Amino acid sequence: MPAGTPGPQQPAKPRENRLRALDGLRLIAALMVAAYHYGGRDGDVARAWGQNPKHIFPTMHTLFSYGCLGVQVFFVISGFVICMSGWGRPLRSFFASRASRLLPAYWAAVILVTAVFALPMVAYKTVSPSEFLVNLTMFQMPLGVHRVLGVCWTLWAEVRFYALFALCIVLPGANRRRVIMFCAGWTLAAVIAHGAKMPLLDIVLMPEYAHFFIGGVGLYLVHRDRRDAYAWGIVAVNWLIGQHYAVQSLWHPAGPHAFSYRSPWGIMLIVTLGFVAVAAIALGWLNWANWRWLTVAGALTYPFYLVHEHLGWVVIYVLHRGLGIPPYGTVLLTVAAMLLLAWLLNRFVEERFTPKLRTALSNARL
Description:
By secondary structure, this protein is an all-alpha fold. 71% of the residues lie in helices and 0% in strands.
């Protein structure tokens, strides 16, 4: 080749096709959690209905009570997505992506729920100005501060997963061997933490939820190579342990506000279906579900998840006790109202501020 002649161009690494079925699964998981919060437990939602939801839904309340397992499905999806999005990405870009994805809608939801709950005609639970400000950091859980959003405990689990993944995988650079060692090491460490009963280890390693995140990471390895025996082993082991934790914590949950008659078989079935659904997506079996509206569904899931619980109480009170709408109609209209609010948050908050925050964090000097 003559001097100065450019060499042959290397083919660009193909980009991941958007897995729209994963967006649809996110929305299904969010609707499961909404069903639980509206009709599958007692507590503050009973004030909105005027009585215990098991009397409002004498048949369906048992089914609704399983909706809390949508959180475990979320965690499996998160393990898959974070491994996919963090693969080959530098640390600063990974941090900018995660922070800009979570914070704008979260800040808007905290402000909105605080403002609505402070209204004299609502007055559910108010927080002090100091507690409100701490809630903006997402660190209210470890600091023992009253939560503005009931669902924010799951975000605290997500943040700890992001930190572990960033330090162990993104910072040194993702490759198959490193991800496998991370999954194996975290699985073993989480089991040890459970046996050690040390609060610090529990906070860092999250033994109750780690296995769902790890299982999702393993399923992403399956997505990259369906014949990867180590990846399948990671998925199998963490499904086995994860279902145990789910049964242990949800079969007869402590506390007066939770229904305690879930079947262990039902819990195991839902956890298994969550793993199977993500596996089907990883293997490409659901590539036919490529409708554009699923992308919209995926975009609405996070803001819907943030606002549906507490603001849903207000809507239920207005529709059921104020306007006399029957229970099932109230649930459907409440879900529709929360999806509309989620669309507004996505359109006017996330679409405007997420790119700006991502750019600012990506360009900032460390």
